[in-house]
Design a protein that fits this description.
With 82 residues, the protein is an alpha+beta fold. Strand 2 and strand 3 form a beta hairpin. 27% of the residues are buried.
Length: 82
């Protein structure tokens, strides 16, 4: 089992954050970089205004870097609650 990093991101709108083209592109980019050596999962919380970003990879540092990449795109797009 690979190391895992999970971050909960408070967003203005869960559907908007999930459907944003730049966020989807960032998720695809991370998935492509990880290839067979990991995975990314981005999903809505059922009870909170939160998007959960989880990455599994061979190294913990890669997990953190890839999660942060997706969160930075969400922030740039103005989707995160301050």
């Amino acid at each position: 089992i690979y190391p895992q990093c999970l971050k909960n991101v408070k967003v203005k709108s869960k559907p908007e954050a999930q459907q944003d083209a730049d966020v989807q592109a960032a998720v695809k980019e991370v998935a492509d970089k990880l290839g067979e050596d990991g995975r990314i999962l981005v999903r809505e919380s059922g009870t909170e205004p939160v998007i959960r970003v989880m990455v599994e990879a061979k190294k913990d540092a890669i997990c953190r870097e890839m999660v942060q990449r997706v969160i930075e795109v969400m922030d740039k797009e103005g989707l995160i609650l301050s």
